[in-house]
Design goal:
Structural class: mainly alpha
Distance between the termini: 33 Å
Strand content: under 5%
Number of strands: 0
Helix content: over 70%
Radius of gyration: 21 Å
């Protein structure tokens, strides 16, 4: 194996996932995460319809993000201790109810509450990803994760386009009704076709949450991948936040409908990145990470020319969008593939740590971009994106110079045993322990 990270961390076995099932899970991820992005292009329309200021209307997105963040931290870990087919279908059904509540909201306060619940249930996407990894065989796990994660990023990109089109021909409430219908169809379909996915741990809920902290505190591989996830999502957010200002400004003067179509350009990069999962399966995960960080950095060298406007600027913007989305998706797939091999017993908890870090990076860079753009313009924001990418290269250089341990990570429920193992120079093999536990059961 060319990739030393936890090369023996898999559990083997035959895959229970057909190609149609993988695509169904990818659609589920994309549709679920799209729920928290539908509102973004609708904010002016919603604010006017409810008779509130645009500033108050803008908090609709904030409410959904707060719900999503809380769910990442508090709900996603349950994927390790509950039967996941029932958990996923139940959350999709709850999401449909919340979306219908948003569509029927008579006031801004009611809409805040509804979209917060929509955000919380949309984190089901981050339960589906480790579930798919658990159902996949070792030799195809990276490819499966890559396909499912491509669906997730495509959902983010297409949400703005779909919302704009539906609102154009109907009204903003129709968007939420449409999304609720999609959730109902997916909930029923997954309940009928998914196999049972038994839990990988039996841990009380408070201890389950503490074990996430334990993993972060004790494992350098997880901490470094979390930092890189924050960098990748940070650069992604800088681009999509600032590009709206650029496209609406004097250089292009596009309206909201045309700006929304640029999400389709991002889909190209997201779809192309699914091949990186196959590279990870062949032992090239570290090379994927290196290449992703180089492309992420180089994309800002192209994007800076977008500020010129005209055909040259437009071409630079589109090429930069494709490159940056490709890099971000490749990096995220690389992080998940490496960690899922290392922590087969706690994939949902690893996803919690990884995605909370990514979300934190997105939140910070979104605020920075909004504050700095009026002062430094597109060129300054491009420099900010490049600095963030260079920070990622520095973090990765540390990993290359001082690699994290290559053995599977110790089970967080057995923190004392893990520390004892390190003291004696022996690391616990959780995959073997889980196999033995299953055999005894």
């Amino acid at each position: 194996m060319n990739d030393p990270e936890c090369s023996k961390g898999g559990t083997g076995g035959r895959s229970t996932l057909s190609r149609p099932m993988v695509l169904l899970l990818a659609v589920t991820c994309g549709a679920a995460v799209a729920n928290i992005y539908y509102a973004q292009p609708l904010l002016p329309v919603v604010s006017k319809a409810l008779g509130v200021s645009e500033g108050a209307g803008g908090l609709i997105v904030t409410a959904s993000q707060i719900g999503y963040a809380l769910s990442l931290a508090l709900l996603v870990p349950l994927g390790d201790v509950l039967e996941r087919r029932r958990l996923v279908s139940g959350l999709l059904a709850l999401s449909a109810i919340a979306l219908l509540g948003a569509a029927a909201s008579p006031s801004l306060g009611a809409l805040y509450a509804s979209v917060a619940l929509v955000g919380a249930t949309s984190a089901v996407a981050q339960i589906v990803v480790p579930m798919a990894a658990s159902l996949a065989a070792d030799h195809e796990r990276g490819a499966v994760v890559g396909t499912v994660m491509s669906g997730l990023l495509i959902g983010i990109m297409l949400a703005r386009t779909v919302a704009g089109a539906l609102a154009e021909y109907g009204n903003w409430r129709l968007v939420f009704v449409f999304a609720a219908g999609v959730m109902v169809v997916l909930a029923i379909t997954l309940r009928l076709v998914l196999p049972r996915v038994p839990p990988t741990a039996r841990t009380p809920y408070p201890r389950l949450l503490r074990s996430v902290v334990t993993l972060v505190r004790t494992e350098s591989l997880l901490r470094r991948r979390m930092a890189l996830a924050a960098v990748g999502m940070g650069g992604f957010t800088v681009l999509w936040t600032a590009s709206s200002f650029l496209l609406a400004g004097p250089a292009y003067e596009y309206g909201p409908a045309i700006i929304g179509l640029f999400g389709l350009v991002g889909v190209v990069g997201a779809a192309a990145a699914s091949v990186t999962g196959r590279l990870a399966d062949r032992g090239h995960g570290r090379q994927v990470t290196t290449g992703g960080l180089i492309v992420l950095t180089g994309s800002w060298g192209v994007l800076v020319f977008a500020g010129r406007g005209g055909p040259l600027g437009l071409g630079a913007l589109m090429a930069g969008i494709v490159a940056l989305n490709l890099a971000q998706q490749a990096l995220l797939i690389s992080h998940q593939s490496a960690l899922y091999r290392c922590v087969p017993h706690a994939r949902s908890r690893v996803t919690t740590a990884l995605m909370v870090s990514a979300f934190a990076g997105s939140t910070v860079t979104s605020a920075l971009t909004a504050a700095l753009y009026p002062l430094v313009g597109w060129a300054g924001i491009s420099a900010l994106g490049a600095v963030i990418a260079l920070l990622g290269l520095a973090i990765w250089a540390l990993e290359l110079l001082r690699p994290s341990p290559a053995e599977p990570l110790a089970a967080p429920e057995a923190d004392e045993e893990a520390h004892a193992g390190r003291t004696s120079g022996v690391r616990t093999d959780p995959a073997r322990e889980h196999t033995e536990e299953t055999t005894h059961a």
